[in-house]
Amino acid sequence: MTFGKLLRSLREDRGWSLGDLAGKVPYSRSHLSNLETGRRAPVGDVARLCDVALNARGDLIAAANMDYVARIDGTPWQTAELLQRIQISDASDATIASLNATVYELCCQYNLRDAIELRAESHGWLERVGKMLRKPVGLKAHQELLVSAGYLALLAGCTEYDLGMRATAEATRTASLELGIESGHAEITGWAHEMSAWFALTQGRYQNAIDAAQKGQLASKGTSVYVQLLGHEAKARARLGQPGLDALLDEGQHYLEQRPEPERTEHHFVIDSSRWNYHSMDIHRLAGNLDKAREYATSAIESLVRPDGTEISPMRVSEARLTLAVVASREGDLEKAVDLGIEGLQGSRKSLPTMLMVAGELDAELQQRYPKERLPGEFREAVRAASH
């Protein structure tokens, strides 16, 4: 949801007129109206002030930041067009085997590799497949080709969304869903629904996130993505203040215990116990379980940072540090909270929507708890800089 649509929704939910909101923030009714209709972009402190006035818990701040990064999105159909070519192409067994190995390796590079570079290489392989594969093949080989193309689409879509390219990512996600359905591959279909839940979650559309997660669970029961979908459902319910979080956490933990540990946990489209702990960290933070949130965040950093300081998964480490910053804020240590928060924005590999969602929640937390202090302003400036 855009900043303007979310602003109007929150205002109307409170039963406020534009005049009522104008009485709470230093902006005129006409300025606020222009923000709601999209004729003006939310610049300066307007997002933060409206967020506080409407008690939006960081959602308006995150939406404003997402609107900014979405403006770099100028090619929404590029990946989808490549995928259309893939769906009508064929290949030899040797080409398919080579493609499978390459796609697997690319998926293992997601956590560390620059998103722009990885997206470009994914596109390169999609183009190469579209040019090379023309001869009809057997049914099994054709299905394998669709599966490889499906994972390439998922990977491209994830990097696109990491970069804030919302329209492009959604077009790619839709194409990957079609490939998953056409190939009869429950894992790809489930991950396409997972992306939908992730998009909705980071855009503040929490009920949509729950719906997408549940739809994905129905399509992917028995696969590893099922537990990821449980995590997204729990995150969305936590942000809505709904009950039942412990049941979802228990189900996810039990489900993982029944599955073998993956050979390469860095593969983005497999789930292991460490990633489930990462989801649990976020859910406990939102539920106010500070000891559990600290435990999971500390464990994540210890397991994902090598002795020489190299981060195995910078995006997860970033969110763990932001979680510890929230814990520090609620325990009254403002300086530690801001230091950890700023450190959490400085990872070498970022997923802008997820980072801005959690950073926006921390920003709202700091502004609410320490409205007269200087340090929260420093963190807000760091968030603004990180989003550009």
TrEMBL record:
One of its GO terms (molecular function) is DNA binding. Residues 7-61 form the HTH cro/C1-type domain. Pfam families: HTH_31 (PF13560). It comes from the Bacteria. SMART domains: HTH_XRE. Signal peptide: none annotated. InterPro entries: Cro/C1-type_HTH, Lambda_DNA-bd_dom_sf, TPR-like_helical_dom_sf. This is Transcriptional regulator with XRE-family HTH domain.
